[in-house]
Amino acid sequence: MTEGAFFDVLRHGMWVAVIISTPILSVALVAGVAVGLFQALTSIQEMSLTFVPKLLAIVAVFWITTSFMTETLVRFFQDELIPLIVGG
Known about the structure:
mainly alpha; elongated
């Protein structure tokens, strides 16, 4: 395997990681901003109020997008990594 092929596979793997993590991170961001805005408007400074809604939102999105994440990782392994392992 040449350096160029190695860096190409590494670049593609990093892109797959970005694609897979985008739904969860975006929901965590939106939930955090919404809870922060709610806390600022009501002057409620409860620590569990920031943690629980974000956790529930992250778990729900993870549960919904598990099949997408699995398919993306399997496709990456079948198309990129396994041919490199078998071929070389």
